[in-house]
Amino acid sequence: MNTPILPTEIRTVFNGRIFTVQVETIQLPAGHTLHAEIVRHPGSVVIIPVTDAGAIILVRQYRHPLGRWAWELPAGSLKPGEDEDTAAVRECHEEIGLVPGQMLRLGSFYPTPGYCDERMNFYRATGLRTPRADEHAEQDVDEDIETQAFSRVELSRMIAHGDVIDLKTIAGLALLDSVTT
User: Rounded to two decimals, what is the model's pTM?
Assistant: First the structure.
């Protein structure tokens, strides 16, 4: 039962800047044919920036599919061939404007395995500092980001009141709690 099922046909229906959509035809073990619609994603990193005081920095950005602004952990897609650890440092610097002194990989999850192969890699960033003059990073052109540090109590309230709606953020905070308790 753990043997992968290989597709008999793969058809690319969309090839975008961040992901590709494919339809793969497979034969299920029971004999049925399935045309699986799959979002192929290069993977991403999710950063949990923890200040020296123990607060967690979130970013607020507009999410057009939802038609609203959302508070989230900083995150970003891997660039082609990019190492996950390198991407985590880059995304921390780009999104919150601080360079991490230490990065601890906490784990990886597939947020939507029913139709997407994206693997999110979670990191705790500590020892945050202002970048040196020779350390340059720029936000992506499609990002309009605000940053703010929140206490754990504030984050719990925000989640309970629906102010944090992003599942990667909720999962990341739960993962952080599981390694720090």
Answer: 0.91
